[in-house]
Design a protein that fits this description.
Keywords: Proteasome, Repeat. This protein is an all-alpha fold. The longest helix is centred in the N-terminal third of the chain and has 30 residues. The radius of gyration is 20 Å and the shape is globular. The chain starts with 7 loop residues before the first helix and ends with a helix.
């Protein structure tokens, strides 16, 4: 196909599609840059509203940006907002996965049972076709982040459950 043969309207439409595609990824990068440059209070104020946007790329950028900004803080407001996303069966799989990763980052090593149960329920509610997506392999990573550095506690819980079931 020769671009010389296309009418100007078709070329303009093609340019608009390319620019729109680029802007989606630029918004993601901007969200991550904001999280890295600002302190926690400003990051939540600037990125918090973007969690609810319709555009999946913008949502993921805001969610990951908040995860970076609040890593290890156990910020309860993020727990409330992100577990709501995990509990929403209409949330796109990508948004669900990165919400779980962000919860793992924010609550790393906390052994937060509520978050762990919410992630497990989100896994159980998804279809087999969704769970076959490679991206879902990050859900167990999110669970692992919750128990990072707490293997002794985790093994005690697993052994207790094994003994309880027998």
């Amino acid at each position: 196909m020769q671009y010389d043969d296309l009418p100007i309207d078709a070329l303009m439409e093609l340019v608009q599609q390319i620019v729109a595609f680029h802007m989606k990824f630029e918004d993601l990068a901007s969200s991550l840059r904001i999280a890295l440059l600002l302190d926690n209070i400003q990051a939540l104020a600037l990125l918090g509203d973007f969690i609810e946007k319709d555009d999946t790329i913008i949502r993921i950028g805001a969610i990951l940006g908040l995860g970076i900004a609040y890593a290890g803080t156990n910020k309860d407001e993020l727990r409330v907002r992100l577990t709501a996303i995990l509990g929403d069966s209409k949330s796109p799989l990508e948004v669900l996965v990165f919400s779980a990763i962000t919860l793992g980052l924010v609550h790393v090593g906390s052994c937060n049972e509520y978050i762990a149960q919410t992630i497990i329920l989100a896994i159980m509610e998804r279809s087999e076709s969704e769970l076959s997506e490679p991206l879902t392999r990050l859900l167990p990573v999110a669970l692992g982040l919750l128990y990072l550095g707490k293997q002794v506690i985790l093994w005690n819980d697993i052994n207790f459950c094994a003994n309880f079931s027998s």
